[in-house]
């Protein structure tokens, strides 16, 4: 173009790259300030720049995308570094594919924008495929603007922000956007590569994000997947993601905070807890206090995700994509109905619990790829942060109301099987010989499935905390707290509509959250605090550790039940019929090769010969069933 991009002003660049002849601008309030992050007014692209911040739409009037902007959000201190790592990881993929791009720090808040100019424009379908795969790969990516060809917009490089900062170019040259060098075919290839690299739905199936150090060994036993993440050199292409995978696998293996703190000193994959991404291609050491606090926060989060994924059975690849497509459609429709019919699920405390149990069942359905899923009452309770009695009552009410149905009852050590009633999606049958609704293409299907799984995980884990138990602030407070992940800010009225409760009740809950500094005042209402203070609030209220105590209690109840089931099976069988290996409903307690020999201790009995379940529970609590406590079993 004959002009160096270094001499372009932000408005000069906007005039050259804007796909339309108008941009959207912010409007000052009566006091002359910019309080609301909205761009309601159109401003014609001409010689004079607007006096307030502006954004350019990414697609032209024909809804073909001329620009792509990947927006990595940074709403909390932890999210800032995650956004930077996600941005760097995407930038690395683009470099591999030789796709020219520009990386910007969007504002003083630390968010990132990655810009791509498209030659000739790309269809909304191509861009949507890229957006969905990128969203499934990078958790901090806000891909909404890439799914909106009509009005999707972003502030261009150099444009001012309402906080007084500007969008600053960190890597690349602005003239790349004016040159429009990327082709739609390259975007299609990008979607394929992102689809191949996106993380698995479960941490046990994820792969390291970079080469591993084969000489590294952890000080405690860990799964093969966890060993791989721990050994990833320098944290791989995405150190913050790798570090969290290390914590998640450690939490699933029963490690403690002290164990992960010890591993963080030397494990290559936990580089994120030793050094900090500067955002300019280098890392600097963290202070000891910062590293300790970040590790503690991330460990608490990892424990929540581990509790959510612990009941999942072994993963199996779906054999029937038509069935999986129906499941994904049903769950997507269910979440939509829960959102638009909030009043049904918010008018009572019981209804709020029923909604959570319904979402937990939907989560199990998505993860297993089966309509009927085995779900014990205790597993659902631990996944949702509710008590087992509340979970059982919710299941029966949902079944009576026609939302779910029990396919098979509980049998010995096997949990009951439940399935969502398939009234959430309309099944139109067939038109002649062809189905009216053809299954989605596999790439789109798996991307949508991953997006739905992440959405439900966020809803469940945000409220899966000691603070939001009944003895704490309550389950509804957890629902409101989870909403602040989906919405940057909420007013009392908007929160009440989303929850389906009265404004008065909502105001009371918000005041409690504000009291413990979980939310802060925002220009558009209330917003989540940048620091996660849920554990501090739980400690103040005296409910810290309540869910852990509940989990241990339910585990003990399961052991007693499995013990009794094994004992009962022995009682009603002849010696030749008795199991030669651990009973299917119990954990292996001993290894015995002699036919007919029991592999568990004798169940305690009262003086009249009846089973003494109270004594059995005491033995379980004392660790008698641990194989290493064999010498203690003479009394049993």
Topology:
Layout: H1 10-17, E1 22-25, E2 41-44, E3 54-57, E4 65-72, H2 77-96, E5 102-105, E6 112-122, H3 124-137, E7 141-142, E8 153-154, E9 168-171, H4 175-179, H5 184-197, H6 224-230, H7 239-252, H8 257-264, E10 275-277, E11 283-285, H9 288-309, H10 321-340, H11 349-368, E12 372-374, H12 377-384, H13 388-400, E13 404-408, E14 417-420, E15 430-431, E16 434-435, H14 442-463, H15 475-486, H16 492-499, H17 503-515, E17 519-522, E18 525-528, H18 534-541, H19 546-571, H20 613-621
Antiparallel strand pairs: 1-2, 1-3, 3-8, 4-6, 4-7, 5-6, 5-9, 10-11, 12-14, 13-14, 15-16, 17-18
Helix pairs in contact: 3-5, 3-14, 6-7, 7-9, 9-14, 10-11, 10-14, 11-12, 11-13, 11-14, 12-13, 14-15, 15-17, 16-17, 19-20
Give keywords.
636 residues; DNA primase, PRIM domain; five-stranded antiparallel sheet; four-stranded antiparallel sheet; 20 helices; 18 strands; disordered N terminus; disordered C terminus; WH-like_DNA-bd_sf; WH_DNA-bd_sf
- Segments where pLDDT lies below 50 for 5+ residues? 1-5, 424-436, 582-597, 631-636
Helix percentage range: 40-55%
CATH second-level architecture of the domain at 5-197: Alpha-Beta Complex
The average pLDDT value, as a whole number, equals 86
Can you tell me about this structure?
- There is one protein chain.
- Mean pLDDT is 86; it is low at 1-5, 424-436, 582-597 and 631-636.
- With 636 residues, the protein is an alpha+beta fold.
- α10 runs antiparallel to α11 (349-368) and α11 crosses α13.
- β15 and β16 form a beta hairpin.
- The strands form 6 sheets. It has a 5-stranded antiparallel β-sheet.
- It is built from 20 helices and 18 strands.
- Residues 203-234, 268-293, 576-621 are annotated as: Disordered.
- Residues 275-286 have a biased composition (Basic residues).
- Residues 214-227, 605-620 have a biased composition (Basic and acidic residues).
